[in-house]
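Re: that chain you flagged

S.,

Sorry for the slow reply, it's been a week of failed gels. I finally had a moment to sit down with the sequence you sent. For the record, here it is as I used it:
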Amino acid sequence: MPAIVIPRRLDVAAPDHALNDLATESQLSAPTQHILPNGIKIIAEQVPVDAVNLSIWVDVGSAVESDDINGMAHFLEHMVFKGSDRLGLGEFEQAIESHGGNTNAATSQDYTHFYINVAPKDFAKLAPLQLDIVLKSSIPDEEFQRERHVVLEEIRRSEDNPDRRIYRHISELVYEQLPYRRAVLGPVDVIENVTSEQMRSFHRQWYAPQNMTIAVVGNLPVSEMIGVIADYFETQNERDAIAAKPKHKDFISEKSFTEVVRREVTDSSLKQARLSMSWRVAGLRDLAETYPLSILANILGSGRTSRMVQDLRENRRIVDRISVSNSAMRWQGTFQVFAKLNVEDVAIVEQAIREHILKLHKTPVTDEELAKIRTQVSNRFIFGNESPKERAGIYGYYDRIVGSLEPALNYPDLMKSITKEDIQSAVRKYLNPDAYGILIVKP
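Prediction finished late last night. Pasting the structure tokens below so you have them in one place:
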């Protein structure tokens, strides 16, 4: 099931006046925030789109798992759809689909996310069903055994996917201690041996109201949307509805590389080599430090006119594809350059990337580059949050995982505030041209 994508990049520039108009007319407004007596936070907003999205964000992902239950959060995401105390197998999906709605879920290292999209007239009937399966999952033994085979097959398909294998190699290279080095799906031998009682215990621990955020966006009055959710909890037994907030473990981000850490693997399924150069950078705990790096990633590798694409692919033709990303998770981020290329060009490309990073240490990005990319990044955020699903996703993610809605509401202004000096400072702090992790995958 696909994970939510938090916008980071855009390949097509928009004129500066368009950004000003969009920032005035379309940037995220301040939604209503309401906390129920049991600790669940509701974020609600009425928008003139004839649909309602209800998103439940649970502050639990694979990072909280011990090694002996690695993959439990993802496995539980599957089992949630197997019913609750009052909903039998398949009844939830049947109810949603029979009303023309849809539902899905995703698990990452830092969160689990469930949502439904329904017509406004059906919200009061269908929202309680989603709340029920998430909060009161029955996790029946017979279905647990059946779904175990489904999850095991998903793991095996992942292992057969070359892109997934490369991602795993990169994670294991970048993270030596943090649980981000492990697969969200977990290993086969763990999933083969976890028990349904372990899962029920995991559910009781982490699926507590105070560990969740509910975001609801659509064409209904805010008071009505909040009221439907509040009514659900008022009808529940207080002992079941209220639970202590689970204690999260604090992790320490890993130190920057002090030398080049090089790994090479062979993958006979590939026809061309892959090269990944990664630096450890700030995570979501240091959110402000991620902004210059996100803008820089666009300057270097977003669109045909970006620096590395123009140099290495368009002009020198030594890569077939090159991209640059800044990926921030809660405890750590990764700044990564990824290339698809011929194996004989690996050393040349590595050196060329180092030279691009070294140049940034010496010379700031240009005013023109900064203005263009700030517009792109801001507009992408605005354009990417026009539907109820997208807006609810942003609200839930920022509140539950980032810890505040304010950066989402002020995103265009935050992007416009980043200077070329901020970017150069981030480069000098995090991107050492002589110390990084490099993975080379040869066919």
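What I noticed first: The two ends are 29 Å apart (CA to CA).

Talk soon,
D.
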